[in-house]
Design brief:
Helix content: 25-40%
CATH class of the largest domain: Alpha Beta
Strand order of the largest sheet: 15-16-17-14-13-19-20
Shape: globular
Number of helices: 16
Structural class: alpha/beta
Largest sheet: 7 strands, mixed
Pfam families: Aldedh (PF00171)
Distance between the termini: 68 Å
Number of strands: 23
Radius of gyration: 24 Å
Keywords: Oxidation, Oxidoreductase
Family: Belongs to the aldehyde dehydrogenase family.
CATH topology of the largest domain: Aldehyde Dehydrogenase, Chain A, domain 1
CATH superfamily of the largest domain: Aldehyde Dehydrogenase, Chain A, domain 1
Strand content: 15-25%
GO molecular function, one term: oxidoreductase activity, acting on the aldehyde or oxo group of donors, NAD or NADP as acceptor
CATH architecture of the largest domain: 3-Layer(aba) Sandwich
Protein name: Aldehyde dehydrogenase
């Protein structure tokens, strides 16, 4: 078995306690690598290395030099994107077709923020004070703790790391214990690109050992987290004790809304993309399909036919549409929610059970599942399943669609399908979601901000907005020589 060590201070480091844990291929069910089992000592080592780099060589570099390193990293990612994708598929079981597209595309985040690194500009403020110059500087926060999920480890890391480095910060990464290998393989590219030791560090392990120690560390300035809303709340509460900065990209229960005038064929494909792509294991999953009542039955009939033809099996095969559920706990959770939906009175019109047909060798496959007769107050409509399970809910008109769509604790994304641009604009204005797609779904870009409303998180990733998340503002006042004012009165 391949063995992966921590990457700390520019070196490969064995775990402090000498412990390792296995990582399992979700498709085959077989362990294929050993990962360093970190603890608080490893975290302290990594944070110290990151702080030393921040106070030293990294901060001494010109922004344009940091930008060139990010550009170089983008080139290396493109060169090795296929190899990185294979590791991700082995680790999380998602389709190679999708993961290879992600690992290649993530180079654009490093290229984009590499170009922004020397364009972080302050401003001179025209104040109302005489003989005083006031200007604003934007400065990096310091050491950023980055805690990433198992569904798209490297892409979601890029959303954090590229902006943080461009802003002049250093990083300690804690990947999911289920999918650590690709992040550690990525550290080899960090090394090859020429980043100074300690600028980027990775400590692997479990939340109780590594995650908590990282969040609580006194020298961590900010936590950037992607994961469940439950874990996000705990991190936010812990960070608040030291007034640490946080950005949280959490869960979703996104409405995908289809009006009767929409291109029905395109909307069917959009609905399938929204929930069955990535085996439903995505925070932006369009897991609530809202259908205008006049098209409900015909749309469901077409949807069931197309989704029922999806090929389930080996994620490395380009013929496969639906791969395995990534982790055993998540597999059980998905099946539990299917039973909850039945108990609540929803009607299963497709799937609804484990898949054990051709190509299912690892035992963690769930058939694409569609429920109708779903009310928006059911648990299956309110709680994030994070699997290939779709709830179909009818609506009457725009107002009814908005009422149902917004009646949820989450607000990460939403989809609208209509040919009426007036309707599209009204819906996009009134939907309480950080991203609204019209006549498309699951589109993301390094140029466009991403994040959620309500319980879906705090802060934004990608685009110009994201770099602000890793900067703090300093106001500087320079007084010219002048008579001493009354010292007991604010100037």
């Amino acid at each position: 078995m391949e063995r992966y060590q921590h990457y700390i201070g520019g070196a490969w480091v064995a775990p402090d306690a000498g412990k390792w844990f296995e990582t399992v291929n979700p498709y085959s069910g077989e362990a294929w690598a050993e990962i360093a089992h970190g603890n608080g000592g490893d975290v302290d080592h990594a944070v110290t290395a990151a702080l030393t780099a921040f106070d030293g060589e990294w901060s001494a570099m010109k922004p344009s030099q940091r930008g060139r390193l990010l550009m170089r990293l983008a080139e290396l990612i493109e060169r090795d994107s296929a190899a990185l994708a294979e590791i991700e598929v082995r680790d999380n079981g998602k389709l190679y077709a999708e993961m290879s597209a992600q690992t290649k595309y993530m180079a654009e985040w490093y290229r984009y923020y590499g170009g922004l690194a020397d364009k972080i500009e302050g401003a001179v403020i025209p104040t109302d004070k005489e003989a005083v110059l006031n200007f604003v500087r934007y400065e990096p926060l310091g050491v950023i703790a980055m805690i990433t999920p198992w569904n798209s480890p490297l892409l979601l890391l890029a959303w954090k790391l590229a902006a943080a480095l461009a802003a002049g910060n250093t990083a300690v990464i804690k990947p999911s214990e289920f999918t650590s290998a690709s992040t550690l393989a990525f550290m080899k590219l960090i090394e090859e690109a020429g980043f100074p030791p300690g600028v980027v560090n990775t400590v692997t392990g479990f939340g109780a050992d590594v995650g908590q120690a990282l969040v609580a560390h006194k020298d961590v300035a900010k936590i950037a987290f992607t994961g469940s809303d439950v874990a996000g709340r705990k991190i936010n509460e812990a960070a608040a004790r030291d007034l640490k900065h946080v950005s949280l990209e959490l869960g979703g229960k996104s409405p995908n809304i289809v009006f009767e005038d929409a291109d029905q064929e395109a909307a069917v494909m959009g609905a399938i993309s929204g929930i069955f792509a990535a085996t439903g294991q995505t925070c932006i999953a369009g897991s609530r399909l809202l259908l205008q009542r006049s098209i409900h039955d015909a749309f469901v009939e077409r949807l069931v036919k197309v989704a029922g033809e999806a090929t389930i099996g080996d994620p490395m095969s380009l013929e496969t549409h639906v791969g395995p559920v990534t982790t055993p706990p998540q597999y059980k959770k998905v099946l539990d929610y299917i039973e909850i939906a039945r108990e609540e009175g929803a009607t299963c019109v497709l799937g609804g059970k484990p898949y054990d047909g051709p190509g299912a060798i690892g035992g963690q496959f769930v058939e694409p599942t569609i429920f109708t007769n779903v009310r928006n107050d059911m648990r299956i409509a309110q709680e994030e399943v994070f699997g290939p399970v779709l709830s179909v809910i009818p609506f009457e008109d725009e107002e009814d669609a908005l009422r149902i769509a917004n009646d949820i604790d989450f607000g990460l994304a939403a989809g609208v399908w209509t040919k009426d641009m007036g309707c599209a604009l009204r819906m996009s204005e009134r939907l309480k979601a950080g991203t609204v797609w019209v006549n498309t779904y699951r589109a993301v870009s390094y140029t466009s901000p991403f994040g959620g409303y309500k319980q879906s998180g705090i802060g934004r990733e990608s685009g110009l907005e994201a770099i602000k998340e890793y900067l703090q503002t300093k106001s500087v006042w320079l007084a010219q020589a002048s008579p001493v004012a009354n010292p007991f009165i604010i100037r």
